């Protein structure tokens, strides 16, 4: 399939999804004040029902005109970003750059993405190098790499930037925490699947984009800095539940026709029976319960997906 070409990196909107980010948002907004001239952008802060006063302080930390979209409640990463994407593209954006509220950008971040968009007109998704905020020589993500079972790892996670050769390249997937989306992709594939709420929704979007003929391109010169686990603790029960559930969603949506049913059954059994044995030795009882809940919660949508794929 040949998708429409993405237009140049113009009419750019930068979308920050905020949820009670009073401690995180000032760093992110402050970095945007220092973005180099030459790549104008419209800032849209989309708020998921924050109650900590973070939204009211946006003008204090960002000193340019901006827009605010209030969702009124916590819609999650997928739906919260989709509301912002809808607003930005309806207003004429050609590219929308998603940025977590715990991300800061380097001064030339948008300029580097703009240059990459010129080199890759078939790209519908662009993602840069994500470094840890606590150590700018430590890689958080250089793209995402799903394996044969759709388990997904950040490429280069916790390796030294100074020891890691990086190249601009097409990749299977990119992190949604700092992701540029083109209008052409939006109009062809839509946004995130809101069933995911959070986690794996970026993998799903990238896989749908590739199936439609778009490229997902990793741009190592476009650098962001991540306060890892800022929005959601990496050890939270909710995170484990969503990861278990959404892993099954991705398997059901993207495994090949010959593999999809066996793979879903295998992952379901692994999450319910084999993973808890390993976790029990580590006495991670809350994680066991969370993964059980997530696995069982996945059943209705997984069955819907399988039925949809079985139709002629």
DSSP helix fraction: 25-40%
Q: Structural class of the secondary structure composition?
A: alpha/beta
Low-confidence regions: none
- Whole-number count of domains: 2
Helix/strand order, N-terminal first: EHEHEHEEHEEEEEEHHEHHHH
- Mean pLDDT equals 94
CATH class membership of the largest domain: Alpha Beta
Rg estimate, integer Å: 19 Å
Q: State the major sheet.
A: 10 strands, mixed
How many H/I helices?
10
Terminal CA distance reads 20 Å
How many strand segments? 12
Provide the β-strand percentage band. 15-25%
Shape, per Cα inertia axes: globular
- Please give the oligomerization state of what you see: single chain
Under CATH, the topology of the largest domain is which?
Answer: Spore Coat Polysaccharide Biosynthesis Protein SpsA, Chain A
Under the CATH scheme, the architecture of the largest domain is Alpha-Beta Complex
Question: Overview of this structure, please?
Answer:
The protein has 312 residues and is α/β, with parallel strands linked by helices. It has helices at 25-33, 58-61, 76-90, 109-119, 183-189, 201-211, 237-254, 260-281, 285-297, 299-310, and strands spanning 12-18, 41-47, 66-70, 95-100, 103-105, 123-132, 135-141, 144-146, 152-154, 169-170, 178-182, 215-226. It folds into two domains: 12-226, Spore Coat Polysaccharide Biosynthesis Protein SpsA, Chain A, CATH 3.90.550; 237-310. Strands 1, 2, 3, 4, 5, 6, 7, 10, 11 and 12 form a ten-stranded mixed β-sheet that branches. Strands 8-9 form a two-stranded antiparallel ribbon. Helix 1 (25-33) links the parallel strand 1 and strand 2 (41-47). It is globular. It starts with 11 loop residues before the first strand and ends with a helix. 48% of the residues are buried.
């Amino acid at each position: 399939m040949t998708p429409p070409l993405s237009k140049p990196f113009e009419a750019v909107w930068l979308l920050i999804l905020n949820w009670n980010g009073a401690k995180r948002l000032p760093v992110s907004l402050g970095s945007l004040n220092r973005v180099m001239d030459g790549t104008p952008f419209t800032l849209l802060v989309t708020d998921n029902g924050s109650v900590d006063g973070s939204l009211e302080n946006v003008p204090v930390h960002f000193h340019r005109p901006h827009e605010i979209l209030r969702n009124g409640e916590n819609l999650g990463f997928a739906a919260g970003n989709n509301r912002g994407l809808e607003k930005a593209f309806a207003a004429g954006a050609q590219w929308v750059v998603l940025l977590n509220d715990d991300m800061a950008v380097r001064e030339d971040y948008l300029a580097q993405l703009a240059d990459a968009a010129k080199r890759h007109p078939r790209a519908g998704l662009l993602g840069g190098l994500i470094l840890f905020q606590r150590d700018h020589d430590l890689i958080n993500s250089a793209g995402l790499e799903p394996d044969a079972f759709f388990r997904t790892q950040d490429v280069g996670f916790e390796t030294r930037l100074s020891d890691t050769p990086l190249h601009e390249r097409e990749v299977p997937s990119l992190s949604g925490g700092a992701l540029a989306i083109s209008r052409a992709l939006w109009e062809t594939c839509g946004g995130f699947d809101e069933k995911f709420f959070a986690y794996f929704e970026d993998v799903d979007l990238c896989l749908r984009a590739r199936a439609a003929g778009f490229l997902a391109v990793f741009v190592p010169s476009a650098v962001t800095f991540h306060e890892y686990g800022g929005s959601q603790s990496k050890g939270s029960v909710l995170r484990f539940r969503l990861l278990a559930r959404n892993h099954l969603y991705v398997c059901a949506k993207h495994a090949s026709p010959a593999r999809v049913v066996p793979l879903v059954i295998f992952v379901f059994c692994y999450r319910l029976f084999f993973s808890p044995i390993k976790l029990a030795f580590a006495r991670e009882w809350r994680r066991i319960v969370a993964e059980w809940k997530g696995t069982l919660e996945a059943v209705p949508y997984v069955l819907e997906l399988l039925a949809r794929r079985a139709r002629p």
